[in-house]
Structure prediction request, 221 residues.
Amino acid sequence: MTMTEEHDGRALRALRDGAASVRLRAALAVGTAPDPAAVGPLVERCAVEPDFSVREMLTWALTRLPASVTVPVLVGEVRAGGAQARSQALHTLSKIQDRRAWPVITPELLSDADDEVARSAWRAAVVLVPEGQEHDLAAGLAGQLGRGGRETRLSLSRALIALGEATLPALHAATGHPDAGVREHAVATDRLRRDPDAGFAHAVEEARRIVALGGGGREER
Prediction:
């Protein structure tokens, strides 16, 4: 065993240390000297790592490795892992930005029952969507309008806004939805799209006022 191999082995073992600071340094070390053999241990740790900063460093370490090696493993996690494994794998795929991962973004994934998985799927989808499929993706995302609490709704609004003009037909259609929560979210998203500096809270309050008055925002378009 070479000194490099011994160092890499210690770093990989340290990913399981009880101290988050040690795990953080270990993930940094693995990413600083990327080795395809580390993909499995890194992905496995992502599935159980409780510390946000360490998870971000694990993702960074994975982005340092060849996409041809990491993407198939991450796609496998999305399809078969637990909630955290799937969410973190999607987050990492959004950072790698290799469109070979696009087939894993299914309608079922975009509507996953776990909010964290769904939010990660939305963020990954807008990065990975192939050219020409933006309208279909926007329609799929719009089907989730009105879902969850503030953070979930903000994540969805940001994903829809990131699709640009392609999102407008689906967004406009949602302003006529029979569910008031869906209408509010659609109007708030449109206002945030047109005035991002206003902030999401302001957009939501404005949307509630409009919907309460019986409007859907179409009159301003």
Notes: DSSP finds 13 helices and no strands in the chain. Residues 1-7 have pLDDT under 50 and may be disordered. The CA atoms of residues 13 and 129 lie 36 Å apart.
